[in-house]
Amino acid sequence: MGGSLVRTEATGYGAVYFVREMLKVRKDSLEGKTCVVSGSGNVAIYTIEKLQQLGAKVVACSDSNGVILHEKGIDLDLVKRLKEVERRRIADYATRHKDAKYLAGGNIWEIPCQVAMPSATQNEINGKDAKTLVRNGCIAVGEGANMPTTPEGVKVFLDAKVAYGPGKAANAGGVATSALEMQQNASRDSWTFEFTERKLDAIMTNIHASTYETAEEYGAPGNYVVGANIAGFVRVARAMLALGCI
Predict the structure, then answer these.
(1) What's the CA gap between 118 and 61, in Å, rounded?
(2) How large is the average pLDDT for residues 210-238?
């Protein structure tokens, strides 16, 4: 009864853990990085929360009407109140923080950043957006949404050697935590938030390792698209073999 703690936060937290691991293998970290997070719903809110906890500065978020740019750093408590309690548009953020700018109909991917976290909708980053991000110094992209980058955008990121975490790997934290909930149910157990989050962190770390190592094994080092595609295929194929399906 009550479900799994961390399930609400899981997709956003998990995407940030994946980006943390991508930067770690490059001998870098999220500490001090300037980030933008599209959206202001569940995934975006908890992506912002975990980025801030890990020392990054999120300067922009959005909704379907426009973009908020707050150079001092997004006030997450206000975003939560506007979106989760008052159910208002993100434009109202600028009425509470006079030093923030609201860009009606703006494009969040035109804001310079080092880390981009598309967390809103499918196909929100096209080839032109990807080129703008790269030109403005983006070094990592973590997909919290499902397929938020078009094939043209993906090619731009890969060609530029950006640490690009595709959604099929980077946003697996949500379904992974649903599986943890099933485990709790089956064992008639109840885990704390901290215990469950540690499990989520370990799962995302392992997904990154599997994706990274598979890309290396198949001759595409650093290409998480290749790594995720092959690792996922191999995992399903082995299960089908084990179960006698093929």
Answers:
(1) 10
(2) 97
